[in-house]
Amino acid sequence: IPVDPFDLVIFGGTGDLARRKILPALFRRFCAGQMGTDARVVGAARTEMDSAAYREFAREAITEFDDNEECAAESLDGFLEQLSYITLDARGDTGWQAMKAAMRDGPIQAFYFSVGPGLFGDLAERLHAYEIAGPDSRIVVEKPFGRDLASAQALNKGLAKHFDESQIYRIDHYLGKETVQNLMAIRFGNTLFEPLWNAQYVDHIQITVAESVGVGTRGGYYDKSGAMRDMMQNHLMQLLCLIAMEPPAKFDPAAVRDEKLKVIRALEPVDAEDVVRGQYEGTGELPGYRNQVENRDTRTESFVALKARIGNWRWAGTPFYIRTGKRLRARASEIAVVFKDAPHSIFGADAGRHRNILTIRLQPNEGIELGVTIKEPGPGGMRLVDVPLDMSFAEALGPDSADFPDAYERLIMDVVRGDQTLFMRGDEVEAAWAWVDPIIDAWQEVESDPILYASGSSGPDDALRLMHKDGRRWREIK
Ligand code: NAD
Fold first, then answer.
1. Is ligand 1 within 6 A of the CB of residue 22?
2. What residue range is the signal peptide (predicted)?
3. Burial of 73: CB neighbours in 10 Å, binned 0-12, 13-18, 19+
């Protein structure tokens, strides 16, 4: 379904994110017929160039980062015609009059702040001062949204001076992933799961976001944040919210975000012995974390694992084990809901221990799998075996269904449609920092180093012990 005509300004339009994600995502929506020929995209950044040069920049970016073969080359020319560029300084006067002149009356206006958070306030202020943005304009802001509660509050305040909360779209691209949205459909579109979705039937939940790569060239940025700030406070906590929240009364922004906020507020403080922080060592040719950042004595963590507890009726007693890290065995992200053992085994001790596990796989191979126990085929008596109950979307819905749109495609179109459901509200972000801050503060107080782990491993052994001491184990990272 085509969206209404829009003017989208990408502040930071020459940056890495615009190149790798935003421009390719827009092109795909153009190819799909969702972005009409009446839409305009304006790149705006400090770099001096004209619109023709920007179109070349976008052509190269899309050629490099868009792997959708169905988008024909002639579509690309059409798409590029709708692009223009303005050289602009977020902190000065350059370019702002030109921007005002470029905006049309009528179409939806969206401003994508694809710049560091240090510029959010400046952009908001100038959009207002030059009378470019109005009460219906939308702004999109990227992570990191602050580095602690105080800085997040300051950012929220800076934006709130000129924009109402209903105009602010805080991106967490994990929420744009097809499977993450499917998690809500599975939970709230079926009667099958929700009656079991509580401490009585769920033994525990595991959330893993494992990366195989190290910090690479982003060491300068990463060393100032670490896994807790860069991943846990936003992406993993958002996943936790969607798994744990109560059914909202409606699938609308206020209802969904109210329920997510309640989860964050119900999180209990984490005990020091329930958090493990690690840092990868060099292995063979691969440099260790400390060799990839400036400060050779850095204590920044490239891995964190913790046990979270939610203090409410639904989840009291069910732990949520959450881990994320770099340079791990594989690039693999999943949520596993591990159900309790059947209350009584009629098949005797020989039948072994079997459990239902619902796995929501985010990468690679996005999909959902339900592990069920069945009889092993054959005449060998009643032997049990665990098999996945197949929910292959491709088979059920046709081959195109496996071709998921990228998270950014979905989210940018949601901005144009004015749907904030999959974006973080200001109070959610602040509540998440309020939970994370004491964990980071405690690390700083003890002045201890993170535990080293080998590149290509599953993280520090202490992270394994975090579950072992509860008689549980992590699923394999593969
Ligand atoms: P980048 O450094 O590659 O690009 C920054 C852009 O901002 C450039 O276009 C630059 O010209 C522009 N800019 C800088 N100062 C300016 C000023 N004073 N006035 C006008 N323009 C100015 O950064 P990036 O990697 O594209 O990241 C942009 C934002 O997105 C950051 O907040 C980052 O944390 C976030 N983000 C990036 C990624 C990613 O993969 N690159 C992922 C998630 C979030």
1. no
2. none
3. exposed
Binding residues for NADP(+): 12-19, 46, 143
Ligand 1 atom closest to 221 (CA): 34
Residue to substitute in 94, 113, 114 for testing ligand 1 pocket (most ligand atoms within 8 angstroms of CB): 114
Q: How far is the CA of 116 from the centre of ligand 1 (A)?
A: 5
Contact 301, 228 (CB under 8 A): yes
pTM for the model stands at 0.95
- ipTM entry: 0.98
Instruction: Residue 118: count other Cβ atoms within 10 Å of its Cβ.
Output: 10
Q: 45 C-alpha vs ligand 1 centroid, how far in Å?
A: 9
DSSP secondary structure string, 269-300?
A: PPPGGGEEEEEEEPBTTBPPHHHHSS-TT---
Task: Indicate the SS3 state at residue 87.
Answer: strand
Instruction: Give nearest CA residue, ligand 1 atom 15.
Output: 46
Q: Which two tokens stand for residue 98?
A: 């030109």
Per-residue burial over 288-320, b = 16 or more CB atoms within 10 Å of its CB, e = otherwise: bbbebbeeeebbbbbbbbbbbbbeeebbeebbb
Q: Which two tokens stand for residue 301?
A: 């963590």
**What residue owns the CA closest to ligand 1's atom 25?**
16
Q: How far apart are CA 112 and CA 351, in angstroms?
A: 57
- What does the alpha-carbon distance between residue 466 and residue 88 come to, in Å, rounded to a whole number? 50
Copy the structure tokens of residue 218: 């982003």
Q: Phi and psi (nearest 5°) for 199?
A: -60, -25
Taking CA atoms only, the protein residue closest to ligand 1 atom 32 is 116
Q: What is the mean pLDDT of each run of 10 residues along the chain (478 residues)?
A: 96 97 96 95 97 98 84 85 98 97 96 97 97 97 96 97 98 93 94 96 98 94 96 98 97 97 98 96 93 95 98 98 98 97 86 89 87 90 86 66 81 97 98 98 92 97 97 96
What's the 17 CA to ligand 1 centre distance in angstroms?
7
Domains and CATH numbers, the chain: 6-142 (3.40.50.720), 175-402+424-468 (3.30.360.10)
Q: Which residues belong to the active site?
A: 235
| Amino acid (one-letter) located at 78 | G
